[in-house]
Design brief:
The protein is mostly helical. It has two domains: 88 residues, Helix Hairpins (Orthogonal Bundle); 147 residues, Four Helix Bundle (Hemerythrin (Met), subunit A) (Up-down Bundle). The chain is 71% helix and 3% strand. It has nine helices and two strands; from the N terminus they run βαβαααααααα. A two-stranded parallel sheet has the order 1-2. Helix 8 packs antiparallel against helix 9. The radius of gyration is 25 Å and the shape is globular. The N and C termini lie far apart (58 Å). The N terminus is likely disordered.
Length: 310
């Protein structure tokens, strides 16, 4: 029968089991207030955001800011506790497996998140736009509503130009997007070098490669911001420029948000490394960050091909 060990005595239990070869005990933390703090922060954030969208003048819109601050506080507090427990030797192989499964399912949920948007892009390009142009059994609708509409992608001229106009130009994929592709692919390589340095216990090389990865990620975000400015000011490519503008900014914008999140995670890893955390044998926090960053890079390759090139 498994032995349940709480945080007050888990360290002694873990040491005893480690020495005796018995791996049947597992760690159960004390009750924590952080889950309810997280739920409260998310509620305030969503409620305030809804007020901001539907009632811009409502004073309740500021609840979104309060909720965001609570979530930031929760992240700092909750992860500080997890780091302290890990550095205190309270976690064993069972906890390591739990963390790995948790991170794996989290990345799977992110895969499904982007799969939904890629699916929407596929539906628009391969089904909706051809239907509006009279493909298949939709010829009568086409003749009655938009007889001059021609199916093409990128959709420069929407069916109903009285509602909104299409973009004037599209972004050249072989300029800023190509540079960003090189930056992100290179960042995956430098992060892999950092991981190998950690396994070899080369702390200096580890910090250097990880810092370079962060710089590449920051350069990506700067170039993407420059691309957005160019799209809005010179190309007429905005959120109001039809379905092409909508799908473009949703896909690239959410990806940019994920790069920002990944950069914050890697920055935390760098700070922990400078404080002497992680060993060649125990460093799943770093591994989880690397998994997330590589996932973000793979998503960008799909974006580059299906949003910019084809």
């Amino acid at each position: 029968m498994a032995t349940v060990s709480h945080s007050s005595d888990a360290h002694d239990s873990h040491d005893a089991n480690h020495n005796s070869g018995d791996h049947q005990s597992y760690y159960v933390p004390h009750q924590s207030h952080w889950p309810i703090v997280a739920a409260s922060g998310l509620f305030l954030l969503m409620f305030g955001t809804g007020q901001m969208i539907n009632h811009p003048d409502s004073p309740l819109r500021w609840l979104s800011v309060v909720g965001a601050l609570i979530i930031i506080w929760m992240f700092f507090g909750w992860f500080r506790n997890v780091i302290e427990e890990s550095m205190g030797g309270l976690y064993d192989e069972q906890m390591d497996r739990s963390f790995r499964w948790g991170m794996g399912w989290f990345i799977f949920s992110e895969v499904m998140f982007f799969a939904a948007f890629f699916g929407a892009l596929f539906y628009v390009r391969q089904l909706a736009v051809p239907w509006l142009a009279g493909d298949g059994s939709n010829a009568m609708t086409h003749e009655l509503l938009w007889p001059d509409f021609v199916a093409q992608w990128p959709l420069m001229t929407p069916p109903d130009t009285s509602a909104y106009s299409g973009p004037q130009q599209i972004i050249d994929p072989w300029h800023l997007p190509l540079i960003n592709t090189v930056l992100l692919v290179t960042s995956s390589v430098t992060l892999t070098f950092a991981h190998h340095a950690l396994r070899a216990n080369k702390r200096g090389a580890l910090a250097s490669w990880l810092a370079l990865t962060l710089l590449l990620g920051a350069a990506f975000l700067v170039i993407q911001a420059e691309e957005y400015v160019e799209a809005y000011t010179k190309l007429g490519l905005t959120l109001e420029s039809g379905i092409y503008g909508g799908t473009f900014f949703i896909l690239t914008g959410f990806h940019g948000l994920h790069v920002t999140m990944g950069s914050i995670i890697l920055l935390v890893m760098l700070l922990r490394i400078l404080k002497g955390h992680f060993t060649p044998q125990q460093h799943f926090g770093f591994e989880a960050a690397a998994w997330y960053w590589h996932f973000v890079d793979v998503v960008w390759l799909g974006l580059f091909l299906f949003v910019y090139v084809f």
